[in-house]
Specification:
The N terminus is likely disordered. A hairpin with a 5-residue loop joins β8 and β9. Strands 11-7-8-9-13-5-2-15 form an 8-stranded antiparallel sheet, with no helix packed on it. A 3-stranded antiparallel sheet has the order 1-16-14, with no helix packed on it. It has a 3-stranded antiparallel sheet with strand order 6-12-10, with no helix packed on it. The protein starts with 8 loop residues before the first helix and ends with a strand. The chain is of the alpha+beta class.
Amino acid sequence: MHRYPIFKTSILSRLFGLFASHPFSLSIQSVINALYVNITGVLLTDFHPANTYPTLNALFTRKLLHPRQFNNDPSVFISPCDSFISASGSIEKESALQIKGHTYGVSKLLGDYCSLRSKQKLEGGVYINFYLSPKDYHRYHAPIDMRIVKAVHIPGKLYPVNFTWLRKIEGLFCENERVVLECYTQENRLFYMVFVGALNVGKMGFTFDKTIQTNVKSTLQQCYMYRDVHLKKGEELGLFEMGSTIVMFFEKESFKTQVSHDISIRFGDVLGEVLTHS
């Protein structure tokens, strides 16, 4: 058991979601939005002004005014989001770093519907943790031309995922609600994208399947299988409501990273490249 109190994070997140999605009068909403921008340090250079968003949720989930430019080389992975890379490295003994000194189990994070064979392919591969703070752009995008074969929704808690909480709870990512995408490159190399919920992240949405519902009253994992879901690099994949975390795992000897941890990165920046079979 955790030494820290387990509060009703899902209920708190639902209540906050109701507040964030409520359209107040123009004058009140302008104040709410301005306070949020000032407190969190949101930069709106690439977006509409804060007072044009009818709800706080609309501000959270704002779209870019203009498409981001990125490297179109089909072998290059780009960052799927604006974020801070809190940890990265090699997957060893089915473990990865949550933050320096704290680990999580890769197999446990992926859940029951990802096969043992697929999980074994990750041993010796690369992991990258992307932390999206409340100030960040909250939409996420395809990091490469990709095929999605499976999505797994894993209910759980909604602990905060900031650095204070990552140091408090070992394996916090495995405690929180998450959605796991099993993906393949054009070269049929396996990689996973794991979208981890957090306090006030009432929902995680996905453009390719609107039936995936998060922060619902369910304790059962649910698996969605796909036969012909393809996304092009840079295409919108979905969104968080508020900040959270994305974790990526890459099959062994399939990906060479070009970034390190403890750096900020933007959607479209080069992440690394696909390694082809010798």
